[in-house]
Amino acid sequence: MWNVRGACRDLFLTHAKEIVTTQHPDIFIFLETKSDASRGREVMKFLNYDDCRAIRPADKRGGIWLFWKNSVDLIDFDAENNHFHSLFHFKNLGKEAMVTGLHAPSNSGARHMFWRNMQEDLPPPNSPWLVLGDFNEVTAQSEKKGGRPFRPSQCSDLVNFMDDAGLVDLGFNGCPYTWTNARHGATLFKRDSIVLWLIQCKEVWLSHPQFSEFFVSNWKPPTNDFLQGRDKFLSSISNWNHNIFGNLKNKKKNIMARIEGIQISLSKHYSRFLVNVEADLLQELNEIYKKERIIWAQKAGINWRKFGDFNTRYFHTLAKIKKSKGKILTLKNDAGFWITDNNELKNLATTYFTKLFTTSHSCGNLNSSSISNIRLTENEKRLLSAKVTLEEVHHNLFCMDPIKSPGPDGIQPIFFQRHWTELGDSIYRFCLSCFDKGAVPLDINHSYVALIPKNSAPTNIS
């Protein structure tokens, strides 16, 4: 269960996905979604749940979503504006249990009436019942810190409801407080919720504040030649990636552990310093989530900017589909036998394409009388013999897709596009040299040839 305080916020999906990935809940309840059922169904699909129910918000306030997976069956569902009752059959246990999700009113009068109504509508005795939600209430001084002193009378209706229903507080793990008013000095903490890496240049490197300086430095004098600068970059990028950029998974794990420690410490005594540190760590965590999205989008071979910032699972799925579609694990040879060995598959493909691009026809003498008298105009001759210009090189570089078709060196066009101001002269002089010599250096002219299957399950190369 999670009080999201608005399910349309930019970072909501990222944090929700993290919870699902780490906790694996079969049933997930969202409170204060401030969103309708259509948004709920979108989120349900994104988080890979199988079905959902939604309570609409009232005047852009409130709203509850209930998500569940096929490991449980929903038998019955009844909802009011701020709570619901659901009856689930748990397949692994072979039993049924009622699950109630609620968001108690923030107004004290309405909240007292809410608990009285709940007390009058109890399930049959001995029925398995789980009640969870945002109670907007505490039942002891130990459940809050700061603010006004606790008064037993303020929670009397909640206590009566719990006693009559025979409900027991299941306790908690982690930080004892789940809410803060975030005010400087007079901070109030409350526990009012029950909550049950192929070297390919990575586009995400461009987001690191030290990458541009590192990248451009490889072409600075005396290493002014384009090819020398490229080779220098390729020989040093692995070390930079490991020691400067770092492992995102480990960084995320460390940051989350530090945040948890800070929250536990804040629950014991308020510290403005720790509040500021927590805010900085949350910002770092959000930056890591963004970097992970960029990495998976690049693996999928698509421009993540066209699909929004919050589709990590979409990019992940596309990358997996792209990888699986490109794999050929077995083929039949000319004799009709299945081949599974990788080296034999390579030889089979090489032999086929060698024959395909080889002819048995002999060369004939070309009859010059059949050639039409085609001549170039003086202007066409001038254009063909003219030197390539800086503007032409710039135009063609920026016509390339930023993240598509890296060669064996793994450097994609976006790296040179982003640093044209610093490297444009070196790139231009290299292109000019190729035109003057009439040849491109072999090591930079290498490229990948991808054999793409025309159907989902090929049996022969044909």
Automatic annotation (TrEMBL):
Pfam families linked to this entry: Exo_endo_phos
**Known SUPFAM superfamilies for this protein?**
DNase I-like (SSF56219)
Domain Endonuclease/exonuclease/phosphatase span(s) in chain numbering = 2-184
- Gene3D superfamilies in the cross-refs: Endonuclease/exonuclease/phosphatase (3.60.10.10)
Q: Which domain of life is it from?
A: Eukaryota
From the Swiss-Prot or TrEMBL record, give the protein name. Endonuclease/exonuclease/phosphatase domain-containing protein
Recite the lineage of the species: Eukaryota, Viridiplantae, Streptophyta, Embryophyta, Tracheophyta
